[in-house]
Amino acid sequence: MSEPRDFIADVDSDQRRSPTRVAFVTRRTSAQVKSSHEDQVQTFPEVLFRAVLAIELLAIALVVFSLLFNAPLEGIADPTHTPNPAKAPWYFLGLQELLHYFPPVVAGVLVPTLLIIALVVIPYFNINIEANGLFLKQRQKRLRIFYLAAAGLLLFLLLFHVYVAVVPTVIVAIAMIIAANSTLESPHRFRRYLASKPLAYWIMTWFLFELIVLTAVGTFFRGPGWSWVLPWRS
Q: Is 205 exposed, middle or buried (0-12, 13-18, 19+ CB in 10 A)?
């Protein structure tokens, strides 16, 4: 049993706040309870604490790393001697690799802009509004569209000899075909996992896969004149 309370009268405008059993509601107020329980709980302090902790740990790790290893800096820039190859920072090497195959407007402006727009817009398509698996509904129709899109993309890459981008595209396409032939009741966990993924997941996976491959090729496999070299023979 709860602890007994003094049943005393009081004057207040909120019954929940008043620790009395009898309360007279004042003028210009309603008898309803102003505070109510909600299904959602504010987690901002906890999330903020985790973010601050992650930032502090990252800062400590960077300081320790900088004390143990020197930055891989080159010599003073010489305008009369341009390094060959002149490579961009690692986070731009994917675009620089595309510049090897496409004109600057296409590789530097058109392709990144279209990819960013697609990644922003596609999650809001009606086919993905519930975040269901891509091939769980209208499987045959979506599978035909997928075959046409994949064949067109592969033909485009082969036409411009972008062979380094063909391999990630083929791997993602094979994974999507496995997902199309799987259900949420498949015996294998991996196939159930693939079957549950929406369109935005597949496009984001392909985009990140391509970005990693292009960046790795530009970093380790490009030598003088942007020719193909093996890193262990350079």
A: middle
**Distance in angstroms (rounded) separating the CA atoms of residues 98 and 211:** 10
Q: For residue 171, what is the enclosing H or E element?
A: helix 163-180
Place of tokens 């994974």: 175
How far is the C-alpha of 7 from the C-alpha of 151, rounded, in Å? 79
Q: What's the CA gap between 86 and 234, in Å, rounded?
A: 16
Report CA Rg, the chain. Answer: 30
CA 166/CA 155 separation, integer angstroms? 9
Convert the pLDDT of each residue in 10-48 to its tens digit. Answer: 666 555 565 555 555 556 655 555 555 666 666 567 778
Burial zone of 165 (CB within 10 Å; 0-12 exposed, 13-18 middle, 19+ buried): buried
Strand partners, 148: none
Is residue 20 within 8 A of residue 9, CB to CB? The reply is yes
Q: How far apart are CA 119 and CA 105, in angstroms?
A: 20
Please provide residue 42's backbone torsions phi and psi, each rounded to the nearest 5 degrees: -65, 125
Mean pLDDT of 63-90: 85
Query: Do 229 and 84 touch, CB atoms closer than 8 A?
Result: no
